[in-house]
From TrEMBL:
Origin: domain of life: Bacteria
Sequence similarity: Belongs to the heat shock protein 90 family.
Entry keyword rRNA-binding: no
Species of provenance: Niabella digestorum
PANTHER family, sorted: HEAT SHOCK PROTEIN 90 FAMILY MEMBER (PTHR11528)
UniProt xrefs under SUPFAM superfamilies: ATPase domain of HSP90 chaperone/DNA topoisomerase II/histidine kinase, HSP90 C-terminal domain, Ribosomal protein S5 domain 2-like
SMART domains: HATPase_c
InterPro entries: HATPase_C_sf (IPR036890), HATPase_dom (IPR003594), Heat_shock_protein_90_CS (IPR019805), HSP90_C (IPR037196), Hsp90_fam (IPR001404), Hsp90_N (IPR020575), Ribosomal_Su5_D2-typ_SF (IPR020568)
Keyword Chaperone among record annotations: yes
Protein name: Molecular chaperone HtpG
Histidine kinase/HSP90-like ATPase domain boundaries: 26-180
Swiss-Prot/TrEMBL keywords: ATP-binding, Chaperone, Nucleotide-binding
Length: 628
């Protein structure tokens, strides 16, 4: 062809400095873009063959990446469809450039340039992030096509000429600039290919590697080995998410998980995603063993688009609670060229969210139904996840109602309905509200769980990191149900059945008792109330109101609740007027003896609440010894 010079039609002259500057943090993606283009070109050739539109020899599809440190070049070659000179003009000079100018428009509009960085596939022109000069050598599949060459030095000027390629396909040669010479290091390229190209559908070769191969036997019949150079193929062309679930065994899923997360424990179970209407999505999601510190477990899901790795920051693409899952999602329908705020509003992303949520719910429902025992055994791992989903995703909650479990301090498990049926007969109060009781630390709260037990009440164990929020969620969702920690009040008040118990004390005596205990109080923010409880209930009980405590606990977990964390603790000291100790104290001969006994009873209550510590505890022990 005749030599041709031209100017790439674009209204902005300074596109390259901008590309270089603002994509700097992510400049390694040039390789992702160019290797993807090479893969696309090969896929197109395959398609043309299957459509009967290309009758030549397809050959073994292969993308090759070569680094020449001396010449300071990186070459990406493929045996795909190639381009004619006219196609270069159309696809590279015009189309590819329009992509770059679109980027520029977005960049101008964006309030924060970082919003778009790393999410905008610049395609071919991303090569200029690392190269001063880019050359294309290509030969189209079309019969009679001439090899073509295109060179551009990073200005908007290009040169086209006859090319030197003798086989169908394309070489893209990057002349790496000084600032980016790190990309001339082989390990660096290997690392980038491992990240982005590991699961591409066409073999990608990066140099060679030595492999030990069997080489017959020696005279004694022992096997011999030899070292051979073999092509270094960096990818698995058919990762498991592209296969049908029926082709796969558990081992395959587990092996793939190990490949993705070599340092993680085996997952609990997994879900194979596969949908092609109304959007296209495949993937495998794993339920990991969730440790309490679940912040660390996020950003484990990897997002692919047609087997090209895109990101492991899937925030806004999958629902918040599903970020605890591991695995891969592959969808060409997730728009990658837009900012996060667009993403949240995108209808495909919303549908994908709904779909994944439904699949996860299906899987959990199935596990629960098919093998409840195994499900209960896994509950300590999946419970956090299910509860988190129940709180944060209304659609998930609709389903989770049937398989979320409550467990009591006896380690029995119940569904929400089962639990309601179990406790409603005993634990309904005078206003027809059902009250669920729970402990967060049965050992420490034993005095209180014991009081509940005496009444025939059940006590749940809710000690997980999201349980506080989960409790509030249940109260909102379950009808006429209150959930209170066992030490939130005396058991009579927690489930107030309006049972009138006569007092064994006169009004005068009640006053006297109250005064005695008032003087025994050693801590701030405590309020005394003398009540007529059962004679076998505790003589003194110290409790802290459920709602203040819960808010404070939530504030401690973070969130915008700082106000609550500044509130002081308020305690209620309930003195049982009907306990024999009340009468005993009042019948003591001297004021001093009365005060000493009240002090002792009060300290016992502090002890049961876990509040008697330090010098107070020592003093109490010494006094007790003397009394004995
Ligand atoms: P995109 O890949 O998103 O279309 P690019 O800027 O990466 O945008 O590429 C523009 C076009 O150039 C491609 O659509 C394709 O037609 C052509 N092209 C790029 N690389 C190759 C290649 N290796 N072989 C054949 N055609 C290519």
């Amino acid at each position: 062809m005749a030599q041709e010079k031209g100017t790439i039609s674009i209204h902005t002259e300074n596109i390259f400095p901008i590309i270089k500057k603002f994509l700097y943090s992510d400049h390694e993606i040039f390789l992702r873009e160019l290797v993807s283009n090479a893969v696309d070109a090969i896929q197109k050739a395959k398609r043309l063959v299957s459509l009967g539109q290309f009758h030549g020899e397809l050959g073994e599809p292969l993308v090759q990446v070569k680094v020449d440190a001396k010449a300071k070049t990186i070459t990406i070659s493929d045996n795909g469809i190639g381009m004619t000179a006219d196609e270069i003009k159309k696809y590279i000079n015009q189309v590819a450039f329009s992509g770059a100018s679109e980027f520029l428009e977005k960049y101008k509009e964006a309030k924060d340039a970082h919003e778009i960085i790393g999410q905008f596939g610049l395609g071919f022109y991303s090569a200029f992030m690392v190269a001063d000069k880019v050359e294309i050598q290509t030969l189209s599949y079309q019969p009679g096509a001439e090899p073509a060459k295109w060179v551009c030095d990073g200005s908007t000027n290009f040169e086209m000429d006859a090319g030197n390629r003798s086989e169908r396909g394309t070489d893209v040669i990057l002349y790496i600039n000084e600032e980016n010479k790190e990309f001339l290091e082989e390990y660096k390229i290997q690392e980038i290919l491992d990240k982005y190209a590991k699961f591409l559908p066409v073999p990608v070769q990066f140099g060679t590697r030595t492999e030990t191969q069997r080489d017959g036997e020696d005279e004694e019949g022992k096997p011999k080995y030899k070292e051979v150079e073999v092509p270094n193929i960096i990818n698995t062309v058919q990762p498991i998410w592209t296969k049908a679930p029926t082709e796969l065994k558990d081992e395959d899923y587990l092996a793939f998980y190990k490949e993705l997360y070599p340092f993680s424990d085996d997952p609990l179970f997994w879900i194979h995603l596969n949908v092609d209407y109304p959007f296209n999505l495949t993937g495998v999601l794993y339920f990991p063993k969730i440790k309490n510190n679940f912040e660390l477990q996020r950003n484990k899901i990897r997002l692919f688009s047609r087997q090209v790795f895109i990101t492991d920051d899937v925030k806004d693409i999958v629902p918040e609670f599903l970020m605890l899952l591991h695995g891969v999602i592959d969808s060409p329908d997730i728009p990658l060229n837009v900012s996060r705020s667009f993403l949240q509003a995108d209808s495909n992303v919303k549908k994908i969210n709904t779909y994944i949520t439904r699949k996860v719910a299906d899987k959990l429902a199935e596990l629960f139904k098919n093998d409840r025992k195994a499900y209960e055994e896994k509950w300590s791992d999946i419970g956090l996840f299910v509860k988190y989903g129940a709180i944060s995703e209304p659609k998930f909650w609709e389903r989770a109602k049937d398989f979320v479990l409550l467990s009591n301090i006896k380690k029995e498990f119940f569904t929400l309905n089962e639990y309601r049926d179990k406790v409603a007969p005993q634990q309904t109060d005078k206003n027809n509200n059902i009250v669920y009781l729970y402990a967060t630390n049965p050992e420490k709260q034993h005095a209180y769980t014991n009081a509940a037990d005496k009444k025939g009440y059940d006590v749940l164990l809710l000690d997980g990191p999201v349980d506080n929020h989960f409790i509030s969620h249940l109260e909102r969702e379950l009808e006429k149900t209150y959930i209170k920690r066992v030490d939130a009040d005396t058991i009579e008040k927690l489930i107030d059945k309006d049972e009138k118990i006569e007092s064994s004390l006169s009004e005068e005596q009640t006053k006297q008792l109250e005064e005695l205990y008032k003087s025994a109080i050693t801590k701030p923010n405590m309020e005394i109330s003398v009540e007529n409880l059962a004679a076998d209930a505790l003589p003194v009980t110290i409790t802290i109101d459920e709602y203040t405590r819960r808010m404070k606990d939530m504030a401690a977990l973070g969130g915008n609740m700082d106000f609550y964390s500044t509130l002081p603790d308020h305690y209620k000291v309930t003195v049982n007027a009907n306990h024999p100790l009340a009468t005993k104290i009042l019948s003591e001969s001297s004021k001093e003896k009365q005060a000493a006994l009240a002090q002792q009873a009060f300290d016992l209550a502090l002890l049961a609440q876990g509040m008697l510590t330090g010098p107070d505890l020592t003093a109490f022990v010494e006094r007790s010894v003397k009394m004995i």
